[in-house]
Each structure stands twice: as C-alpha cells, then as structure tokens.
Amino acid sequence: MDLEAFLAEWHNDSPTVLVHTSGSTGKPKPMLVEKRRMQASARITCRFLGLHEGDTALLCMPLDYIAGKMMVVRALTCGLQLVSVPPSSHPLATSHLSPFPSRLDFAAMVPLQVWNSLQVPEERHRLMHIRHLIIGGGAIDQALASQLADFPHQVWSTYGMTETLSHIALRRLNGPEASDWYTPFDGVTLSLTDEGCLVISAPAVHEGPLVTNDIAELSPPAPASSAPAPASFPRRFRILGRKDNVVCSGGIKIQIEEVERLLRPHLHVPYMITKAPDEKLGEQVVLLTESKTVGDVLALCRLHLPKYWVPRRILSVDRLPLTETGKPARHEAERMAMTPDRSQAPL
Of 167, 183, 245, 333, which is least surrounded by CB within 10 A? Predict the structure, then answer.
C-alpha cells in the first residue's frame, strides 16, 4: 500500500482501517481497527514524547502494517509534518530525498534500519540528530544498544502489538535513564496471569483486557503507601520472553529469549535459538546460525550458558528466518530445526 491509498482509506466513511499482524508467530492475519482508537493512540504517543504541531516526522515503514499506518495517523492527528521515504534497510540514505531534511523531530524504525544507518557515516549523523527515535518490531541486542548509548537525543525501545495499535509502553536506550524496564503510558494498567503472562488494560486503544503470550516481570510499586498495590497497578515491566518460546527439556523450562540474551554479548555472528522434538528429553534446544564454524559457536555456548541450556544441535543455515518486518520467524525456525543436515550434536 502507498501513502495515497492509505490516505484515501483513512478519509473514507468507514470507521475502521484494515491492518495485518506482523506474522512473528505465524501467518500474518488481517484485522479491522477503529480510526478513533488510532487517533487516541497517536495523541498518547505525541504527549508522552512531547511532540508538537509543526514537528517533522519520518515515515520509513511499510504502510501494510500498523507501525507505518500509525506514523501517518500521528501526523494527521497531531499536526506533524510528514517526511515520507520508501521503506528500505537504509531509510536515511540521501538517494531517498535530496536534499535530505536538515531536521527530523521524530522517527520510528526497526532494529535492522537503525543498525544499517549506523554503518554509513552520513546516515549515522542523521540518525544521531533525530530528536525522538523509537525502535520496535524486533529485539535490540547489546551491540546495537551500545552504539546508541551516547546519542544526544531520546532513543526508545517500544512495546506493543497490532492489537494495541502499536506501542503502549517505552523504555530508554540511552542516557542516564536507560533501562531494561518499560514505562507504560498514562491510562495503561498491567497484571499477570497465573502463568506469568502480561495482561494489558488500555481502554483508549483496545476493548477489554488483552492477555498476551509475553512472560513478564512487574517492578515493585513505588513506596508511596504501605498498603499492597492492586494486581493491575500501572507499574513498570520487563519482558522475559514468549510463552510459546519455552523449551521443555528433560523437565526443565528454558526461555528461548533468555538463552539469546545471555549469548548476545559473546556470540558475534547471526544466530537464533529454537527447539525440536527429542525422544529422550521431550524437546531440545537448537541453535541456528549463519556461521560455518559451528565448533566455535558451540564452544562459546558451553562457556557462557548454564549446562542444561547449551544447544544439543547447531545448524548452519544460509539465512536466518525473518518476517517481513524483521522479526524472528519462530515457526519457520522450528521447521528448519527439524532438518538434520549440517548439524552438530554437542551433547
């Protein structure tokens, strides 16, 4: 979808807009979302970031998904000046706009776009001078976060999904406020299921509580009162991983994202953790990597992971499976893990 087509859809008589889920946990699904809720989400984000009428906003995301659509809606709702470039892995390249705008107040990107922009000095300079940069649609590893740590303006990681019309919480990636904990927007309250999954109540953007598949941890409530906080106290949270990304191996539950997190500072090749059936253990941890030296990868895993988290197989693949929005394609990864070719059995 191009910008003209989306604007036509936005200005028609229908109260809803068609969007598609990202497909990170399966095939992308179409869904209708209310325009009034998209406008509410736009106002909440702009208020949280302190964006004002006349500020410039960069559209560099596909308009087939909620992230791209919401950038346009924020511009329309809050009076931002929209700068549109074709979706690409190098959104800040001069070839998109010449001359490139000297000032960008707001931009939303996926980690791949940010990483690629950092590799080109001219693009890095533009990225560094975006006043409010939000990053979503995939995990932000330690290597990327470290390159953003000294940026002079605000850089944020987002938390949200299509059902919440993009994000409902942000966490800082740079400066003294950098944190692993997300701060929810005003009006958003949180709780946990018995299994530890995050439950979101955000009435401005979603009808009723939304039970996610994300295993989360809530921060303790602020010590303003000695009384215990209710379960839905609007406190900060951090994400440990997805419920369906748990490997049950020999009675031990292993969170895939936690394995990936522990390896990030040490494994500097493209990799992804997944799982496969195991006759003895029920399920086994499998590592996919674009590296051809699986022995070196195995050595690092043994050095930095708990014994029972070490992958039982390592598969060298030509390319890691990703969705169109750059997220790990977990179902495709599991399918690839069923193929024994080019594998090594560490244990």
Answer: 183
Residue 343 backbone phi and psi in degrees, to 5: -105, 160
Q: For residues 213 and 320, give the distance between their C-alpha atoms in angstroms, rounded to a whole number.
A: 23
What number of CA atoms fall less than 13 Å from residue 319's CA on the CB side?
5
Contacts (Cβ under 8 Å, ≥6 apart) of 248: 254, 282, 283
**Sheet containing strand 197-201, strands side by side:** 189-192, 197-201, 210-218, 237-242
Measured distance CA(118)–CA(129) in Å, rounded: 12
| CA separation, residue 327 to residues 21, 216, 298, 321 (Å) | 12, 19, 24, 9
Q: What is the pLDDT along the chain (347 residues), one digit of tens a residue?
A: 789 999 999 999 999 999 887 655 556 678 899 999 999 999 999 999 999 999 999 999 999 889 999 999 999 999 999 999 999 999 999 888 878 888 899 999 998 899 999 999 999 999 999 999 999 987 787 778 899 999 999 999 999 999 999 999 999 999 999 999 999 999 999 999 998 999 999 999 999 999 999 999 998 754 444 444 454 455 799 998 888 898 999 888 899 999 998 998 899 899 999 999 988 889 999 999 999 899 999 999 999 999 999 999 999 999 999 887 677 889 999 999 987 654 554 55
For residue 290 the two structure tokens come to: 């674009």
Q: CA nearest 218: which of 207, 230, 209?
A: 230
Token pair recorded at residue 17: 């807009």
Q: Sign of the C-alpha dihedral, residues 290, 139, 256, 323? A: negative
Contact predicate 49/106, CB 8 Å: yes
- Please provide the DSSP assignment of 93-106 as one string: -TTTSSSPPS---E
- Rounded Cα distance between 197 and 91, Å, is 35
